[in-house]
Design goal:
Blueprint: H1 2-7, E1 14-18, H2 29-44, E2 49-54, H3 56-60, H4 62-67, E3 80-82, H5 86-100, E4 107-108, E5 115-116, H6 124-137, H7 140-144, E6 147-150, E7 155-157, E8 173-182, E9 185-192, E10 195-201
Parallel strand pairs: 1-2, 1-3
Antiparallel strand pairs: 4-5, 6-7, 6-10, 8-9, 9-10
């Protein structure tokens, strides 16, 4: 999650570990888990600000955090919401989609390669956003062992230039095509707005 955040322009992500309360209570298991995750994040010295437990309101609202007297670098300014379970995450995302008109990209990261996961009811922009997020999440140097070049100027780039993922009516994400350019070379061409990225996966 931290690496993906950096790829989309968040240099030091603020991660809120969600629970039903900002207090650590034995009667609320997710608050105990949040405390442990916060502790581990500090011990491992990851390049992110991680804090929990935090409730949803004081994760995204500075006013709510101030009223409750919560003072830390994450409260009211969370970039990432780490949910306690799949049920919470599923409900949160679908409420954002159907109540707020959000566009959600479904992709599992952390493995050897990202895995795109979409709902059967997802529309085309959501599916495109999911593919785009997966492309951004890939570690091209270690996984594809290829190179990225601008077909127009034939310049070689050392790593993926993270594009802006946008799902409004004027989608920045246009299309992702997999095909063969040469007999011995498989290529992936991805169009992000005005930018075109060509990834070679040769012999």
């Amino acid at each position: 999650v931290v690496d993906f955040s950096k790829r989309i322009g968040i240099k030091r992500p603020k991660v809120s570990v969600l629970s039903a309360t900002e207090e650590v209570l034995e009667s609320v298991p997710s608050s105990m888990d949040a405390k442990e995750i916060t502790k581990l994040a500090k011990e491992e010295n990851i390049n992110a600000d991680v804090f929990g437990p935090l409730a949803f309101d004081n994760s995204i609202s500075k006013k709510s955090a101030a009223i409750k007297g919560i003072k830390n670098t994450v409260a009211g300014e969370a970039d990432v919401l780490l949910v306690p379970g799949v049920e919470t995450g599923n409900a949160l995302v679908k409420m954002m989609i159907y109540f707020m008109g959000a566009c959600a990209a479904g992709v599992v990261i952390g493995g050897k390669v990202p895995v795109v996961i979409t709902s059967r009811s997802d529309d085309a922009p959501t599916r495109l956003a999911s593919m785009a997020a997966a492309v951004v999440a890939l570690d091209w140097n270690n996984i594809l062992k290829g190179y990225i070049s601008d077909p127009k100027y034939n310049k070689i780039y050392p790593s993926v230039v993270s594009p802006k993922i946008n799902c409004d009516k004027d989608n920045d994400v246009k299309v992702a095509i997999v095909g063969r350019v040469k007999k011995s070379e498989l290529s992936l061409v991805v169009f992000f707005g005005q930018s075109t990225y060509y990834i070679s996966m040769g012999d």
